[in-house]
Design the sequence.
């Protein structure tokens, strides 16, 4: 009985890993603008994207942490990516969005200037981050090249890491 | 393997429960060595653990418990008198047993602890004390084989089945046996016969019929053997009929396999005979309860929100028929939610007796160690409180009681010399007081000497002499909680390191509790711990500072007072106020939480007096919003550990409000530089920056382009800046953006999306705009309309049509326009 089950499980695992290989060849990203640059994060690391809602300031935190907001009963930190990247802060506009990203149990909302599009990128078009940035500290996972533009892919894990 | 783990888990849970009870029983036994019931109960615990551990192949544990059982059995039959020395050995062996169980829990193995010496001592005591009555030894020896037989008989049994039954079934039997053994601790003294019963149901008829027959034969033999033993030993009456019953039942039940039924009755009887009341209970994983508690938390938030919406609707549709119905539904929902919350909270409640149980033993050990005579009186052990608190409260109580034994209660000589009874008494009380549980530890020892505490603290550099001078007696008592403080002349194994009481304070603070010390030199000390009943949902006081709100756990709020600014004094650059006969140091919540203070025009301030453990502080806030039931939510991994913030909660309007960590706030208050006195001057500086007419800024809110143009034309001659908005929503957004500092607003009432009344109400929600003049400009002229305008916060009411001059004068008056510019 259990042997049979084991066989089935093995078969399914094989089938699954086979699929994985295929998916791996193309990565799906969501692109957005912060400041003058286009960034992107893997689509699977995004929990949801919402329009700006009110938030509550949290004292004793760095300036880029705007505070916390209520996402259907969960209290989630809100981080301003402009100020996180050292850019001048700007008033929220009609196009401003909160991207709620997750990495394991860590969840946070990020304020971005506007969304661009969902991007499918073949893996071979993704290059490493420029050498000039320190590997450990860098928030950049890699650089994607598409016909006429360059898209910076961000490390979600790094974004969600507390650094104060 | 999983099944084994499950059994092991059951075994451990049960064993620890049994041992908890055991400690208390043993101490009691020392004072009443003749109590047969008590002895029997203790004997059964040892026996049960032995039986179960042998199933699970914990040889070391079996070995130890076997010898314990031996000794206890002798005592049970009156062959051994339990005196203090015997008790020491028994207690030692119990400690060892606990150690083994802990080891099993952590590593699933019972190796690593040396039981040999203890076993030897157990045997020595058993033999040594029975030397004078050598003649009695044979019955004791005869008693021993009985349990041994029970143990040996089991492996025998499984050995037989191995020969007969397939391997898989055999495993099942073993599992079932163990499970059964673990389940029926109460049945333990007659375990060998009782434990076998479920096997019948575990096997299929054809396969086991032959086996069953053999078993019956086996059991009959065994029972016969037992009965002969029993006849010799005059066993406790409880166990005598029990082995007979299953035998009689088993015979007709060979085919029907209906044995479990009579068995259940037996175990019940047995339990009752044991004297402890077995309640109808289910063991539930704490995680499930926590999940349930979380869901209730969500429900409470929903309820709060519903109440808020109900209030809004009530205001808006006053007098409408459906309101009453809505009201009813809302009140039912909130009532049921509250009840549900209490019910779930109750499932998490444990009697504090769980913690108190270990103290009789501790006091006994301590009094022997310290050569003092100490009696412990426990009352209110049935008082219940949340499981998480029960877990946290143990350590502080241990420290306090140790402290009372070591420093409080004097030695018998000293006590007699000062005219007290030789033996000291420590009272441990628990009782409810509102939403709190109070645990009181009272000793009749030498009491605390405030002057001595002060001089010791100065000596150790904990406080300065100056501080000591202004300290009240209560504050001096509080010194014992300072880290590094100790009054003991020398460090003993019991206390004197100056760590314990510091731990007490930290732990009690963690629970949002308070400590109150009362003491009189020569009479004794009373320590009162006041702890909230539950941690997940709390009552909080909501306070406002500028546009921000904070929730302060009500458990830490002693009172709130409204004071005028000139009641605040500055002493050594710290703000203080006089509260009745006390001097209370003050701190502004804005200084703690870096709130930017934009305005401050009131002459009054609210002071929330916070008390935690033994310290007090006054927190100045701008406004008091009210009391609300809040659900504590964590800020998550990213924002955890922010100083001064204990968590967050979601309010009725869906917004997030931060919860103040009172303990941390008190720490922060020490280092925060006070700005209480300086704020008004700063605020005044801000207002005086109008240098030209265009520095004044007025917003015109109207949905009609024509109306806006008329207003603009009327006001343009003044030279002030005019901003236009199409409707309420747009106006509110303009205001929130903060690009302009508006000095006034002209508001139309009839507008799409958001009307003038709603807009006014929304604006008034912001502290910043409390004093922003709103002028209604409308064609609605009814008295009710005017009333509504005033209610929603409009200062003037201009009806259309109006003359440009009139409008201008009204605006000028309201924005305090300086004609000189």
Sequence:
């Amino acid at each position: 009985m259990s042997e049979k089950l084991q066989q089935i499980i093995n078969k399914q695992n094989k089938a699954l890993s086979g699929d994985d290989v295929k998916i791996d060849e193309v990565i799906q990203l969501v692109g957005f603008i912060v400041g003058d640059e286009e960034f992107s994060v893997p689509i699977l690391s995004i929990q949801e994207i919402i329009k700006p809602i009110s938030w509550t300031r949290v004292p004793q935190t760095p300036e880029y942490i705007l505070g916390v907001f209520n996402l259907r009963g969960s209290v989630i930190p809100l981080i301003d990516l402009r100020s996180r990247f050292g850019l001048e802060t700007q008033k929220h506009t009609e196009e401003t969005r909160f991207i709620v990203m997750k990495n394991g149990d860590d969840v946070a909302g990020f304020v971005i200037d506007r969304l661009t599009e969902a991007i499918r990128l073949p893996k071979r078009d993704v290059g490493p981050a420029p050498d000039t940035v320190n590997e450990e500290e860098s928030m950049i996972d890699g650089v994607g090249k598409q016909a006429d533009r360059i898209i910076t892919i961000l490390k979600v894990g790094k974004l969600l890491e507390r650094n104060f | 393997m999983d099944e084994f783990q499950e059994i092991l888990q059951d075994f451990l849970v049960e064993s620890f429960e049994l041992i908890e009870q055991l400690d208390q029983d043993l101490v009691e036994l020392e004072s009443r060595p003749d109590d047969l019931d008590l002895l029997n109960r203790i004997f059964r615990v040892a026996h049960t653990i032995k039986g179960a551990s042998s199933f699970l192949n914990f040889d070391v544990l079996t070995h130890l418990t076997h010898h314990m059982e031996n000794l206890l059995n002798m005592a049970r039959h009156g062959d051994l008198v339990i005196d203090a020395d015997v008790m020491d050995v028994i207690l030692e062996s119990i400690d060892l047993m606990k150690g083994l169980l802990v080891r099993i829990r952590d590593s699933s193995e019972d190796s690593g602890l040396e039981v040999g010496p203890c076993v030897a001592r157990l045997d020595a005591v058993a033999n040594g004390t029975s030397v004078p009555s050598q003649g009695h030894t044979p019955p004791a020896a005869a008693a021993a084989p009985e349990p041994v037989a029970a143990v040996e008989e089991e492996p025998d049994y499984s050995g037989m089945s191995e020969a007969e039954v397939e391997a898989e079934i055999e495993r099942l039997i073993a599992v079932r046996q163990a499970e059964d053994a673990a389940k029926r601790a109460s049945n333990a003294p007659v375990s060998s016969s009782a434990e076998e019963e479920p096997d019948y149901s575990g096997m299929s008829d054809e396969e086991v019929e032959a086996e069953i027959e053999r078993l019956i034969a086996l059991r009959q033999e065994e029972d016969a053997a037992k009965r002969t033993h029993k006849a010799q030993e005059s066993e406790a009456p409880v166990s005598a009929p029990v082995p007979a019953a299953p035998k009689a039942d088993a015979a007709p039940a060979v085919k029907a396999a209906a044995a479990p039924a009579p068995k259940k009755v037996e175990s019940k009887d047995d339990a009752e005979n044991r004297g402890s009341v077995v309640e109808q209970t289910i063991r539930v994983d704490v995680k499930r309860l926590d999940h349930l508690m979380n869901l209730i938390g969500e429900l409470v938030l929903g309820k709060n929100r519903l109440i808020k919406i109900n209030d809004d609707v009530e205001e808006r549709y006053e007098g409408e028929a459906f309101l009453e119905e809505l009201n009813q539904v809302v009140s039912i929902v909130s009532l049921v939610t509250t009840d549900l919350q209490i019910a779930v909270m109750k499932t998490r409640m444990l009697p504090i007796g769980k913690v108190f149980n270990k103290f009789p033993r501790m006091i006994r050990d301590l009094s022997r160690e310290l050569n003092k005579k100490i009696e412990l009186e426990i009352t209110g052990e049935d008082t219940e409180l949340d499981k998480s608190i029960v877990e946290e409260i143990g350590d502080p109580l241990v420290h306090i009681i140790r402290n009372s034994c070591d420093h409080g209660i004097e030695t018998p000589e000293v006590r007699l010399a000062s005219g007290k009874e030789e033996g000291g008494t420590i009272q441990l009380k628990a009782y409810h007081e509102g939403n709190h549980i109070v645990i009181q530890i009272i000793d009749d020892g030498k009491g605390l000497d405030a002057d001595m505490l002060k001089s010791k603290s100065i000596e150790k550099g904990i406080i300065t002499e100056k501080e000591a001078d202004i300290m009240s007696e209560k504050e001096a008592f509080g010194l014992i909680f300072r880290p590094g403080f100790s009054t003991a002349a020398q460090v003993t194994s019991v206390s004197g390191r100056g760590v314990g009481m510091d731990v007490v304070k930290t732990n009690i603070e963690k629970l949002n509790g308070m400590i109150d010390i009362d003491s009189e030199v020569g009479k004794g000390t009373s320590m009162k711990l006041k702890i909230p009943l539950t941690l997940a949902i709390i009552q909080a006081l909501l306070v406002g500072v500028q546009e921000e709100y904070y929730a302060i756990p009500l458990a830490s709020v002693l009172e709130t007072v409204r004071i005028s600014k000139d009641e605040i004094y500055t002493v050594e650059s710290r703000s203080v106020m006089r509260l009745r006969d006390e001097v209370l140091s003050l701190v502004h919540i804005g200084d703690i939480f870096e709130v930017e203070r934009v305005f401050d025009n009131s002459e009054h301030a609210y002071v929330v007096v916070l008390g935690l453990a033994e310290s007090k502080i006054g927190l100045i806030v701008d406004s008091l919003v009210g009391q609300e039931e809040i659900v504590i939510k964590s800020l998550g991994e990213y924002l955890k550990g922010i100083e001064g913030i204990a968590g967050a909660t979601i309010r009725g309007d869906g917004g997030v409000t931060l919860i103040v960590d009172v303990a941390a706030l008190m720490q922060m208050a020490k280092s925060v530089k006070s700005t209480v006195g300086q704020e008004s001057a700063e605020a005044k500086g801000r207002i005086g920056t109008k240098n030209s007419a265009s520095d004044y800024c007025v917003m015109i809110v109207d949905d009609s382009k024509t109306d806006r143009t008329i207003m603009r034309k009327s006001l343009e001659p003044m030279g002030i800046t005019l901003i236009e908005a199409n409707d309420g929503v747009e106006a509110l957004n303009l205001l929130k953006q903060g690009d302009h500092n508006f000095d006034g607003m002209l508001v139309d009432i009839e507008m799409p999306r958001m009307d003038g009344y709603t807009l006014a109400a929304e604006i008034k929600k912001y502290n910043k705009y409390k004093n922003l003049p709103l002028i209604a400009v409308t064609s609605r002229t009814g008295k009710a309309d005017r009333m509504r305008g005033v209610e929603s916060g409009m200062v003037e009411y201009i009806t259309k049509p109006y003359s440009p001059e009139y409008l201008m004068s009204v605006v000028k008056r309201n924005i305090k326009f300086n004609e000189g510019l």
Summary: The first strand of chain B starts at residue 349 and ends at 351. The interface with chain A takes residues 298, 301, 548, 592-595, 633-639, 642-645, 648, 650, 654-658, 737 of chain B (CB under 8 Å). The domain at 690-814 of chain B is CATH 3.40.50.2300 (Rossmann fold). Confidence is low (pLDDT under 50) at residues 129-165, 185-200, 233-276, 677-688 of chain B.
